[in-house]
From TrEMBL, chain A:
Family: Belongs to the Ahb/Nir family.
Domain Siroheme decarboxylase NirL-like HTH, first and last residues per copy: 5-31
Annotated InterPro entries: AsnC_trans_reg2, HTH-Siroheme_Decarb, NirdL-like_HTH, WH-like_DNA-bd_sf
Taxonomic placement: Bacteria, Pseudomonadati, Pseudomonadota, Gammaproteobacteria, Oceanospirillales
Assembly information from the UniProt record: Probably forms a complex composed of NirD, NirL, NirG and NirH. All proteins are required for the total conversion of siroheme to didecarboxysiroheme.
Pathway: Porphyrin-containing compound metabolism
Protein name per the record: siroheme decarboxylase
Domain of life of the source: Bacteria
TrEMBL record, chain B:
Keywords: Lyase
InterPro entries, per database record: AsnC_trans_reg2 (IPR040523), HTH-Siroheme_Decarb (IPR050684), NirdL-like_HTH (IPR053953)
Protein name per UniProt: siroheme decarboxylase
Pathway assigned in UniProt: Porphyrin-containing compound metabolism
Lineage: Bacteria, Pseudomonadati, Pseudomonadota, Gammaproteobacteria, Oceanospirillales
Reaction catalysis annotation: siroheme + 2 H(+) = 12,18-didecarboxysiroheme + 2 CO2
PANTHER family: SIROHEME DECARBOXYLASE NIRL SUBUNIT, TRANSCRIPTIONAL REGULATOR, ASNC FAMILY
Class in the EC hierarchy, top level: lyase
Domain of life: Bacteria
UniProt cross-references to Gene3D superfamilies, sorted A to Z: 3.30.70.3460
Entry EC no(s): 4.1.1.111
Amino acid sequence: MDRLDRQLINHLQDGFPLEARPFLKVAEELNQAGFEPGVEVTEQQVMDRVQTLLDEGYLSRFGPMFQAERMGGGLTLAAMKVTPEDYERVTEQVNAFPEVAHNYQREHELNMWFVLATETPEGVEETIKKMEEITGYHVFNMPKQEEFYVGLRFEL
Amino acid sequence: MSDCVLNSSDSVKGVPHEGARDECARDECAQQEYLLTPLDRALVVATQEGLPVTARPYQTVGEQLGISEDEVIFRLENMKDQGVIRRIAVVPNHYKIGFRANGMTVWDIADEHIQALGKMVGELPYVSHCYQRPRHLPYWSYNLFAMVHGTERSQVEERAEQVKQMLGDACRGNEILYSSKILKKTGLRIASGSK
């Protein structure tokens, strides 16, 4: 990554223009900010850089960030306390639910943490109940009650 | 965590659900959900994996759906206004850019202080997600969750210490949970097409 890549990542984390030629706009914004004295960034360069950063895995997403709860579904964070001898089996059983979007092993007594996204708000409870039946373990449901902040800027 | 995409199926077009947010008394949470039109839905499906890197990405998306560039821009703008889209932007892969450590810090905060303190913690530059969640006593006493990022664990720990100082006596306990393995990561996806 060079200076332009870092500038681009910093710049585009804040937002990508919603207009006909957004990459041109980004190039203009970078040039206006005086990205480098005497150097003009072009639309094509911005596009090439974004594509390369995506291809090389420096960017994990480029596009709209949706907010699931605003669209009528259910969303929650849930955790389980699973013994080592059952961990593999329970992992398979939990992951088999299409409602499980992410699942992480964490270093804690509660050692399995996953995000559930369901079609309806009631779907959360239903899925948890099914999961408890299948795995034989209690599922701790930790839906968000208040959102204080979401988003992160990595300054490069 | 919830910055990623969606839940699935046609029910997103369904009736706004009343009472689903009983636990959340604040006005913004009481807002009704936005009902996606079929075209909105098609746009969500077309863009949830990302925008195409073309000179006119919104035109490219429009061509896939048989609508104009203007219509795409208008619809996306509207979904932004409605809060269905948080923003259009890039998300760096934090592992790849050097932020290899992230810890889920959890805090037991006196209820009467959680609003003010949750907001304060959320404003810290190294916190990516900050939520109030329910306790499950006696197993789980933490009601504030904040994802803290750093280049290494020692930095995450230093930052958690800063948070602790900031919270003062209102904080009755805290822990950092590191992830040791990703067991599944498909992201949230809205189903394409109708059933």
